[in-house]
Amino acid sequence: MILLKPNPSSGVPIYLQLMGQVKHAIETGALKPGEQLPSIRPLAEELVINPNTVAKAYRELEHEGVIELRQGAGAFVSDKAPTQQDAERLKAAQALVAQGIQRLRARGITDEEIRRLIEAELAGVYRSGGPRGE
Amino acid sequence: MFTEAEVHVVSDRPVIETAGLWKRYEGVEALRGLDLQVPSGSIFGFLGRNGSGKTTTIKVLLGMARPSRGEARVFGCSPSGQDGVEIRRRTAFVSDEKDLYDYMAVGEIVAFTRSFYPRWRADLEQQYLRKFELPLDRNIKGLSRGMRTKLAMLLALCRGADLLMLDEPTSGLDPAMAEEVLQALVGHVAAQESTVFFSSHQLAEVEQIADHVAIIDRGQTVVSDALDDLRARYRRIQLVFEGDAPEIRVHAPGTHRVRRQGRVITVLSSSSGDAVIQELRGYRPSSFDVSPVSLKDIFLESVRTED
User: Is the per-residue pLDDT at B42 higher than 80?
Assistant: First the structure.
């Protein structure tokens, strides 16, 4: 599995970036159920990030049922991890996003603006309901 | 899943604690009630402008300067008392200048330093000599800044210390060398269960490897938190209006700065922004943006820039 170096200055916590990468790797099939993830120390050294951050990402992924932590053995992709089916669902959703973005670009909205609009929308700025799913 | 050595049990007792630390030097108040708590097993970034009191703090923690008032504890011991020896035994310090005996060769200083420390890690010595590609027979005087730093780091890493205290460990290094030093640090913390306390002006580096940070300004702590909590809390909110932006007054807690410029108002919030957003929505701006904030922005917002 290839995990990329997170962007430390994006303002997004590094453990969340790592969690996203692992989930993405599972959804695309780069990581399959039962496969082992790198252990904390080598991964921290490879990505040059804090080992406590890697441990936090793994703990949260375990909490979400994405991976299993087995005593003394390491971290493994859970059999119950969201996989291909969800990947299909996400692929369909991605097509919608792609369409939306294309239309916005056609109106001359820049990518940076699109990013900020989406961020604001998710933060519930334009709605009265506030953010969901937290 | 993890072996004992892999999981960091961040214990309750901080490795470093100061409470209301004051230090007066020749009429100048270098520290003015500094509070600091460094959790065990953390990589702690200690930030502040030049002259904000970072080096004085480190000197007090190592027993090289006595505080005028207040208390400092390292491993629960007072640095200026009898216990100071215990602190210095368990702490490896690398100064900003990377002071080393210039007349020695690399191999000589390694052997010399090794002789002082019973917990010296010969395995790490071999490992870092190879990794850092240090020439054993070269005189220290002739080393480049990068080589010198790597040598000083090697001497600190091999001591088997429980605490690494590093003053600007990567200053003057090119990005590749800086990355090597950071990599050695994260590997060390992962393997040795030690704590790293380092000062730095390289905020991107701090964001990369630290889990806790403190920002000090004029001898006082202005921010001290887990880095992920800071990232989760701070937001920049920008409002754009059709005409001139109205005069606004924000009451929500955690509102740091409100800037009004023409049709735009920018607000920095340190309380995840939700309450501020609710409040600001009432002004009916034509556009509303919320974005995460980098450590650099938090730093610039927290320290006073006028001299």
Answer: yes
Q: Sort out which chain B residues have CB atoms less than 8 A from A37's CB and list them.
A: none
Q: Is the minimum CB–CB distance between B211 and chain A shorter than 8 Å?
A: yes
Disruptive mutation site among A52, A70, A116 for chain B (greatest number of B CBs within 10 Å): A52
- Kindly list the domain boundaries of chain A, sorted by start residue: 14-79, 83-127
A116 at B interface, C-beta within 8 A: yes
CATH number at B240 reads 3.30.70
Cβ <8 Å between B43 and A11 = no
Final residue before a domain boundary, out of B227, B244, B273 = B227
Q: Cβ separation of A75 and B1 shorter than 8 Å?
A: yes
What residues of chain A lie within 8 A of the CB of B189, using their CB? Answer: 50-52
B189 CB within 8 Å of a chain A CB? yes
Asked if B57 and B74 touch (Cβ cutoff 8 Å), the reply is: no
Query: Tokens 């604690």 map to which residue?
Result: B17
CA distance A75 to B113: 39
For B249-305, what is each residue's pLDDT tens digit?
Answer: 888 888 888 889 999 999 989 887 678 888 888 888 988 888 889 999 999 988 887
- What is the CATH number assigned to the segment(s) A14-79? 1.10.10.10
User: Do residues B60 and B194 share a domain?
Assistant: yes
Only one residue has tokens 């390292």, namely B74
Which letter does DSSP use for residue B139 in this model?
Answer: B
Most confidently predicted of B7-21, B187-201, B202-216: B202-216
Name the residue range of residue B295's domain: 234-303
B210 and B293 fall within a common domain = no
Question: pLDDT digit of tens for each residue in chain A (134 aa)?
Answer: 578 889 988 888 999 999 999 998 888 888 889 999 999 999 999 999 999 999 999 999 999 999 999 888 889 999 876 666 666 777 788 888 888 998 998 888 888 888 888 887 887 665 554 455 44
In angstroms, how far is the first alpha carbon of chain A from the final one?
Answer: 28
This prediction has a pTM of: 0.82
**B100 and B203 inside one domain:** yes
The domain tally of chain B equals: 2
| Nearest-Cα residue of chain A relative to residue B285 | A126
Q: What is the ipTM of this complex?
A: 0.82
Residues B238 and B93 in one domain: no
pLDDT at B306: 66
Q: Are B18 and B70 within 8 A, CB to CB?
A: yes
Are B134 and B164 part of one and the same domain? Answer: yes
Q: Which residues of B touch A75 (CB under 8 A)?
A: 1
User: Can you read off the two tokens belonging to residue A14?
Assistant: 């590094």
Whole-number Cα distances in Å, B30 to A22, B26, B56, B68, B253: 46, 10, 7, 10, 30
